[in-house]
What we know:
By secondary structure, this protein is α/β, with parallel strands linked by helices. It is built from nine helices and eight strands. Strand 2, helix 3 and strand 3 form a beta-alpha-beta unit.
Amino acid sequence: MKRLTNDKDGMFFEKLNTHRMVASIKEPKQIEIALSLRNQLSGVFLLTGHIGVIKGYVDLFNKHQVPVFLHLEKIGGLSTDPYGLDYLAKVIQPTGIITTKTNVVKLAIKMGLFTIQRFFLVDTEGLDNVAKSLSQIEPDIIEVMPARIPEMIGEIKKFTTIPIITGGLLFEREHMVECLRHGATAVSSSKSDLWRKTIAAEQVNFQNLNSRLTPV
């Protein structure tokens, strides 16, 4: 089955190569801010809303050509069974989904959805869990939290070539640069002040992502 069905012409990956910042939206009032900064964001992660309003949010970002991903565990009333994911893919039509659950990743992939799997690294067992999960199924991107242990990005890159986004506990621009220098593809943040920060290519040894991020 063709993957990345809602990433129009690879737009999200193209933006990741350019901007390296994803806006995590935890409150509806942040939507307007993200839209005003859309030309310097790779996309948005929606962590707010419910089944009654989420399509309106997604339609708004789609209208402005901003890649939008729904964190399934944060959206009220949205089922992650085959019927719920089918409704999401065909009616709500986000660019893709975010989930912490490997079984949901498997199901979403079968349905042709672009998948981002979120992992929390609280100890070495967390690192083992990443390796175990990726040995079972590979999402399109992984998100690793928190971002303030950037050296762990290098550890994960030892056993996977999947692009890594990292977020959590980011407070300063230099925190972002540090994550990128350790190999993160991009950073995610719910702090709108950080959305405004740009990072010059010469500050980080950026690698072009196109070879790894080709839709399959």
